[in-house]
Every structure is written in C-alpha cells, then in structure tokens.
Design brief:
Largest sheet: 7 strands, mixed
Radius of gyration: 14 Å
Structural class: mainly beta
Number of helices: 0
C-alpha cells in the first residue's frame, strides 16, 4: 500500500521559515518524480515545486528564490524548505509522487499539511 505522509506544517510569522517533509512508503521512491502542491481557500491546487528522479528541479514563479525542494533517496523522503514566507503562502501543502511508464501513469497524493503565515 502506497503512503505519502507530510509533516512540518504550522503557524509562522511573515518572513519566517518552515521545512516540510514527505515520507513515502510502498513505492520505489528513487524512480518517482516528486512534487509539492498547495491549495489555498477558494483557490485551485497549484504546483509549488517539483524534482525529478535525476534531481532536476522546477519552481512556481511565486516561490523562486525562497523555496527549495530536495530529496533523500536513502530516507524515501522529499523536503520543501520555505524561507521568507508571506501571508499568500498560507495553504494546505500536498506531496505528490508520479511515475509515467509506457503502460500507465502512477500518481499518488499525501493527505496534506497546513502552513499558515500570519502575525
């Protein structure tokens, strides 16, 4: 059974930092592309950052220079370091694991972790 378990969310003041973690089980983690998405109240879920199995990364324009995605294949874990947080970063953050083969697409989601940026 595949599980993605996020942690590290919480309440932080503007300008502060949070580090989100997503621990995966039930998949061959190293071959999956991993991503962090977020969904704010009344808004659609959006991609925040992604990292391929080879370590290439991409970011939403709104978080470039402030957020860093990384992965540790020895721990089956992907991280999102969030610095210089703004109120507009407040959202539920979801971890995603994707693998596309020539037969099918494997797509898994975590349950989400709340990050609130407020003074």
């Amino acid at each position: 059974q595949v599980q993605l378990v996020e942690s590290g969310g919480g309440l932080v003041q503007p300008g502060g930092s949070l580090r989100l973690s997503c621990a995966a089980s039930g998949i061959i983690f190293s071959i999956y592309a991993m991503g962090w998405y977020r969904q704010a109240p009344g808004k659609q879920r959006e991609l925040v950052a992604a990292i391929t199995s080879g370590g290439s990364t991409n970011y939403a324009d709104s978080v470039k220079g402030r957020f860093t995605i990384s992965r540790d294949n020895t721990k089956n874990t992907v991280y999102l370091q969030m610095n210089s947080l703004k109120s507009e970063d407040t959202a539920v953050y979801y971890c995603n694991a994707v693998l596309v083969t020539n037969l099918r697409k494997y797509d898994y989601w975590g349950q989400g972790t709340q990050a609130t940026v407020s003074s």
